[in-house]
C-alpha cells in the first residue's frame, strides 16, 4: 500500500514522541548495570530492588523491635468529597491539590508525582482532609491491597489509601521496602469479593524496625538511591509533558518535521528499541492502555480516507491485536468490577449473577476486552438466544449486565468506548401476569395444616414483601399493636410494611406456639427451630398450592397480586411504589396488572 504524505507525517510525529519518552527513561542508566528492557516499563524498578536488598540485609544483621505500625508512625486515611458536587474536583493541576487514587499509584513509579484528578484547596479545608507531606509513604488497602508509593510533593488521598508519616526520615526510608515485601495475606480479609482490609488493621499491623546503628547505615546507603529515583521520576514527568505538548502540534502540521533527519539510534542505550521490535516498545508506553488506544484511533483517523471499509476494519483489528496491553488480566478487571458493585450495595446473589454472565461471555467471545466490538456482542447474544432457547427478557438482562460492565471499563479508562453503546434495549412482549383471585387466596388459607403456614400466607398476601425480606424478619421487627413491621430490602434499605387484622391474629397465634430461643420470625417446625430459607418457603407454598388445587403458587405471585389489587382499587401508584420498595415507578407498573374493566370505567368517567 502506498503511504500518503499525511500518513508519513503521522509516523514521524509518533517517532519523535516515542523518542522523547525513551530518552527520559534511559538518560540515567549509565554505569548502573541495569536491564534496559525492564527500564522501559518502570525506570525505577531496579533501584527499588536495590533498596529492598539493603533493607533485607539490614534486617538480618542486627536486632529488631516489633510494634504496631501506629506506634512507629503517624497514620491517617484520606477522604473523598461528595461526588455529586463537581465544584470540589478538577482535572487541572494549577493551584489545586494532588488527589492520589489506587489507579494513579498503579500507573506511577516509586515516587508519586501527579494524579488523574485534583481537589481544590477549598475542598481539602471544607472536608478536613489531611495532607501528606513530601516523603510520606502511601499504602493501598482496599480493592487492591499492597500498592506502595512515596509522595514526591504534598498531596491528599482517597479513603482507600493510608498515609504513613514520621519526623524520622530514616524510618520512612526503611518503611518503603518493608511494605513492598510485606505479607498482606497475614492481615486477613474483610471483603467477600477482593482482597481488602480496614484502617484499624493497617494501624495495628506488626512492623519490625532495626536499632539505630543499623538504621543509620541503611539510611546512608539508601538515601542516594532515593534521590536518583526522585530525579528519574521528575525528568520522566517533564519529558512526558513535552511529548504531550508537541504531539498535537506535529499532528496538525503546526510544526513541520518533514525535513528532520532522525538518527537511526538516537541513544546508544536504545538498541532493544530498533525497528525490528516495534511491538516490544509499544507495549511499554503505557501502564494503562488508554494512551495506546488513543494512538490507534489517531492512526485509523488518518488512514480512513485511503482505505475501503474492509481494509479499515482489518487495520483496526491488527493494531489492537499487536499493541493490546497485557498488564491487567481478565480476572483482575472482573474482580475490580464486582467489588465496585459490592460497594454500590448489590446483594451477593446479584454479584454472583453478574460474575457468571460476564465469565460466560468472555469464554465464548475469546477476546481481550479492548478488542471486543459491537458485532462480537451482537453475535454472542444472538447465538445465546438460539442455542439455549432463551426468552427476550433473559437476553435483555444479559445485555444490561454487559452494558454495565463495559461502561465501567470505559469510566475507568480501560477502554475508550463501550461496544455496548450501539446495542439497544431488547423489545419484549408485554404479557399479562397471573394473580391470585380472592377464591384462590381462601383456598390456600384452607390448605394450611398449621398456624405457621397460615401466618406466612397472610404476611405475603397483605404486605407484598419479597420472599427474601420475609425470611430475614426477626420477631423483634414485628409491631403487632400497630400491625406493621420493618423489612430490609434490596441494597440493605429498610422500609415499613403493613398487615391486616387477620394476619395479626394468625401471627399472634403462631408466636404463642413458639417456645424456642431463635430470633427469626419464621422457623422450622422440628426441634432445631432454624430460620426458614427462601427455598424452604417456596417449597412449602408449592405443596400448599397443590393440596388446595391452585396451580403455580410462588411467593412473588402474592406481591404481584397486592400491587394489582391496590391500583385497581384506586391507590395512587406512588404509594404502591413506596409500599413495594421500588426505586423506580417503572418497576411498580411492571408488577401491577391494571384490570381492563377499570380502564373502561375510567374512560367513561373522565372522557365521556
Please outline the helices and strands:
Blueprint: H1 5-26, H2 36-41, H3 45-61, E1 64-68, H4 69-72, E2 74-77, E3 89-90, E4 97-100, H5 102-107, E5 111-112, E6 117-119, H6 121-126, E7 137-140, E8 148-151, E9 155-157, E10 161-165, H7 169-180, H8 199-204, E11 206-210, H9 212-252, H10 278-282, H11 290-303, H12 309-322, H13 330-344, H14 348-365, H15 374-388, H16 392-411, H17 438-446, H18 451-463, H19 467-471, E12 478-479, E13 484-488, E14 494-498, H20 501-512, H21 534-548, H22 555-568, H23 573-580, H24 585-591, H25 596-607
Parallel strand pairs: 4-9, 5-8
Antiparallel strand pairs: 1-11, 2-10, 3-6, 4-6, 7-8, 7-10, 12-13, 13-14
Helix pairs in contact: 1-9, 3-7, 3-9, 7-9, 11-12, 13-14, 17-18, 18-20, 18-22, 23-24
Task: Please tell me about this protein's structure.
- This protein has 608 residues and is of the alpha+beta class.
- It folds into five domains: 1-63 and 211-271; 65-209, DNA methylase specificity domains (Adenine-n6-DNA-methyltransferase TaqI, Chain A, domain 2, Alpha-Beta Complex); 290-322, no CATH class; 330-422, DNA polymerase, domain 1 (Orthogonal Bundle); 438-607, hpI Integrase, Chain A (Orthogonal Bundle).
- Helices cover 52% and strands 9% of the residues.
- It has 25 helices and 14 strands.
- The chain has helices at 5-26, 36-41, 45-61, 69-72, 102-107, 121-126, 169-180, 199-204, 212-252, 278-282, 290-303, 309-322, 330-344, 348-365, 374-388, 392-411, 438-446, 451-463, 467-471, 501-512, 534-548, 555-568, 573-580, 585-591, 596-607, and strands at residues 64-68, 74-77, 89-90, 97-100, 111-112, 117-119, 137-140, 148-151, 155-157, 161-165, 206-210, 478-479, 484-488, 494-498.
- The strands form four sheets. It has a five-stranded mixed β-sheet. Strands 3-6-4-9 form a four-stranded mixed β-sheet. Strands 12-13-14 form a three-stranded antiparallel β-sheet.
- A hairpin with a 7-residue loop joins strand 7 and strand 8 (148-151).
- It starts with a helix and ends with a helix.
Amino acid at each position: 500500500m502506498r503511504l500518503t504524505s499525511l500518513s508519513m507525517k503521522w509516523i514521524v510525529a509518533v517517532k519523535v514522541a516515542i523518542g522523547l519518552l525513551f530518552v527520559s527513561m534511559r538518560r540515567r542508566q549509565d554505569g548502573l548495570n541495569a536491564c534496559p528492557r525492564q527500564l522501559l516499563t518502570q525506570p525505577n524498578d531496579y533501584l527499588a530492588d536495590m533498596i529492598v536488598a539493603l533493607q533485607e540485609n539490614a534486617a538480618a544483621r542486627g536486632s529488631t523491635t516489633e510494634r504496631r505500625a501506629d506506634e512507629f508512625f503517624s497514620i491517617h486515611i484520606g477522604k473523598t468529597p461528595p461526588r455529586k458536587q463537581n465544584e470540589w474536583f478538577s482535572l487541572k493541576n494549577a493551584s489545586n491539590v494532588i488527589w492520589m487514587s489506587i489507579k494513579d499509584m498503579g500507573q506511577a513509579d516509586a515516587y508519586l508525582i501527579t494524579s488523574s484528578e485534583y481537589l481544590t484547596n477549598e475542598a481539602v479545608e471544607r472536608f478536613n482532609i489531611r495532607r501528606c507531606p513530601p516523603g510520606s509513604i502511601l499504602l493501598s488497602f482496599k480493592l487492591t491491597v499492597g500498592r506502595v508509593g512515596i509522595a514526591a510533593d504534598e498531596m491528599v488521598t482517597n479513603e482507600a489509601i493510608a498515609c504513613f508519616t514520621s519526623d524520622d526520615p530514616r524510618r520512612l526510608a526503611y518503611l518503603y521496602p518493608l511494605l513492598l515485601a510485606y505479607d498482606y495475606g497475614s492481615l486477613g480479609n474483610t471483603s467477600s469479593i477482593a482482597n481488602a482490609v480496614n484502617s484499624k488493621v493497617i494501624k495495628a499491623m506488626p512492623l519490625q524496625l532495626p536499632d539505630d546503628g543499623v538504621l543509620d547505615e541503611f539510611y546512608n546507603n539508601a538515601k542516594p538511591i532515593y534521590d536518583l529515583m526522585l530525579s528519574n521520576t521528575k525528568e520522566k514527568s517533564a519529558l512526558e509533558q513535552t511529548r504531550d505538548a508537541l504531539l498535537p502540534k506535529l499532528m496538525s502540521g503546526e510544526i513541520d518535521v518533514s525535513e528532520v533527519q532522525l538518527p537511526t539510534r538516537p541513544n546508544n542505550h536504545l538498541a532493544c528499541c530498533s525497528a525490528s521490535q516495534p511491538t516490544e516498545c509499544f507495549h511499554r508506553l503505557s501502564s494503562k492502555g488508554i494512551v495506546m488506544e488513543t494512538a490507534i484511533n489517531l492512526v485509523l483517523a488518518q488512514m480512513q480516507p485511503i482505505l475501503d471499509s474492509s481494509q479499515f476494519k482489518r487495520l483496526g483489528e491488527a493494531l489492537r491485536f499487536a499493541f493490546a496491553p497485557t498488564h491487567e488480566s481478565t480476572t483482575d478487571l472482573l474482580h475490580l468490577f464486582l467489588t465496585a458493585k459490592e460497594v454500590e450495595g448489590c446483594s451477593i446473589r446479584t454479584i454472583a449473577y453478574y460474575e457468571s454472565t460476564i465469565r460466560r461471555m468472555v469464554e465464548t467471545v475469546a477476546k481481550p476486552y479492548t478488542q471486543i466490538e459491537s458485532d462480537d456482542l451482537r453475535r454472542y447474544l444472538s447465538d445465546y438466544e438460539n442455542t439455549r432457547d432463551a426468552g427476550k427478557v433473559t437476553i435483555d438482562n444479559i445485555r444490561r449486565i454487559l452494558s454495565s460492565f463495559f461502561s465501567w471499563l470505559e469510566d475507568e479508562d480501560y477502554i475508550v468506548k463501550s461496544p455496548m453503546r450501539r446495542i439497544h434495549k431488547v423489545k419484549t412482549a408485554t404479557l399479562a401476569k397471573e394473580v391470585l383471585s380472592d377464591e384462590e387466596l381462601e383456598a390456600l388459607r384452607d390448605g394450611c395444616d398449621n398456624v405457621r403456614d397460615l401466618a406466612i400466607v397472610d404476611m405475603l398476601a397483605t404486605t407484598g414483601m419479597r420472599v427474601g425480606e420475609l425470611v430475614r424478619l426477626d420477631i423483634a421487627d414485628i409491631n403487632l399493636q400497630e400491625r406493621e413491621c420493618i423489612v430490609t430490602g434490596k441494597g440493605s434499605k429498610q422500609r415499613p410494611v403493613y398487615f391486616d387484622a387477620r394476619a395479626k391474629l394468625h401471627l399472634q397465634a403462631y408466636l404463642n406456639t413458639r417456645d424456642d430461643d431463635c430470633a427469626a420470625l419464621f422457623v422450622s417446625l422440628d426441634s432445631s427451630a432454624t430460620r426458614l430459607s427462601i427455598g424452604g418457603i417456596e417449597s412449602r407454598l408449592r405443596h400448599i398450592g397443590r393440596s388446595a388445587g391452585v396451580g403455580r403458587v410462588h411467593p412473588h405471585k402474592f406481591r404481584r397480586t397486592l400491587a394489582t389489587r391496590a391500583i385497581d382499587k384506586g391507590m395512587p401508584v406512588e404509594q404502591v411504589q413506596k409500599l413495594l420498595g421500588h426505586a423506580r415507578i417503572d418497576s411498580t407498573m411492571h408488577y401491577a396488572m391494571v384490570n381492563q374493566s377499570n380502564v373502561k370505567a375510567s374512560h367513561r368517567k373522565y372522557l365521556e
